[in-house]
């Protein structure tokens, strides 16, 4: 019910983060709100959210120029969505957009970062993602009172998952007709392929590349969607190179782990 307060600790980007909500998600007063259970090809609904006790420190050593990243992140969703989505034909891969709209509190000593807006999602599955997919991309756009998402995931089996959804502040999800798909320029350094959807006869171009790595590119794309001029936060994951020897050799440097 509105006003119910609960929190969830999730692993996101390899880090433990606290998700704190005060509704509106229809959560009962004891703090239990609908995690997911399998529910058909379009996804399941949330079944339980577990409690969390305070934030966790993030502390990493970055490469190739050695420096430390220290601080805390807390995510305060405007809403929690109750449905995840199946990405493949047999249900081995699923995606949950936990919070389509959120306020993100960032308290970092190094570097000096500030509070902003954002989202929180998570992928899960019963096999490694590179076994099911060679690539996928997804985009998110802020429509003021709603959020639009586009997900494109061609599987190795030949099935292509294409999602186009709008989510409002109470967490209701509705499909919309996905506009035509177009190809965009590759990322400059690692040549990661990029593509998105935009309304016919409309433009789409990359405003800024935020991350450019051997497996992943994050970009800001300016285009038109659902009759509005928007900025898409676009992510492209390239999984074909993941099993190569040179990428495996780089993983300890890209994702260092500290045994405490």
How would you summarize the topology of this molecule?
Blueprint: E1 6-12, E2 15-21, E3 58-62, E4 67-77, E5 84-86, E6 93-110, E7 116-125, H1 129-132, E8 135-142, E9 146-154, E10 160-168, E11 173-175, E12 181-184, E13 194-197, E14 204-212, E15 216-225, E16 228-238, H2 245-254
Parallel strand pairs: 2-4
Antiparallel strand pairs: 1-2, 3-4, 4-6, 5-6, 6-7, 8-9, 8-16, 9-10, 10-11, 12-13, 14-15, 15-16
What does this structure look like?
The protein is mainly β and 260 residues long. The chain folds into 2 domains: 1-126, no CATH class; 128-260, Beta Barrel (AttH-like fold), CATH 2.40.370. 5% of the residues lie in helices and 49% in strands. The protein has 2 helices and 16 strands. It has helices at residues 129-132, 245-254, and strands spanning 6-12, 15-21, 58-62, 67-77, 84-86, 93-110, 116-125, 135-142, 146-154, 160-168, 173-175, 181-184, 194-197, 204-212, 216-225, 228-238. The strands form 3 sheets. Strands 1, 2, 3, 4, 5, 6 and 7 form a 7-stranded mixed β-sheet that branches. It has a 7-stranded antiparallel β-sheet with strand order 11-10-9-8-16-15-14, with no helix packed on it. A hairpin with a 5-residue loop joins β6 and β7 (116-125). The radius of gyration is 19 Å and the shape is globular. The model is unreliable at 1-8, 11-16, 20-54 and 255-260 (pLDDT under 50).
């Amino acid at each position: 019910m509105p006003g119910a307060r609960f929190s969830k600790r999730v692993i996101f980007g390899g880090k433990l983060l606290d998700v704190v909500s005060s509704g509106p998600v229809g959560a009962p007063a004891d703090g239990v709100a609908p995690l997911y259970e399998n529910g058909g090809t379009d996804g399941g609904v949330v079944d339980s959210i577990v409690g969390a006790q305070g934030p966790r420190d993030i502390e990493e050593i970055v490469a190739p120029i050695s420096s430390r990243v220290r601080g805390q992140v807390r995510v305060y969703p405007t809403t929690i969505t109750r449905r995840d989505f199946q990405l493949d034909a047999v249900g081995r891969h699923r995606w949950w957009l936990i919070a389509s709209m959120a306020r993100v509190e960032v308290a970092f000593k190094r570097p000096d970062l500030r509070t902003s807006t954002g989202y929180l999602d998570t992928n899960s599955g019963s096999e490694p993602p590179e076994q099911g997919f060679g690539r996928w991309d997804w985009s998110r756009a802020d429509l003021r009172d709603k959020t639009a998402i586009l997900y494109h995931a061609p599987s190795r089996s030949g099935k292509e998952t294409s999602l186009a959804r709008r989510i409002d502040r109470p967490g209701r999800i509705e499909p919309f007709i996905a506009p035509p798909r177009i190809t965009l320029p590759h990322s400059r350094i690692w040549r990661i392929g990029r593509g998105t959807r935009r309304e016919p006869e409309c433009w789409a171009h990359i405003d800024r590349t935020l991350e450019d790595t051997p497996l992943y590119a994050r970009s800001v794309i300016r285009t038109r969607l659902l009759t509005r001029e928007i900025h898409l936060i676009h992510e492209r994951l390239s999984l074909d190179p993941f099993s190569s020897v040179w990428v495996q050799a780089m993983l300890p440097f890209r994702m260092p782990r500290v045994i405490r």
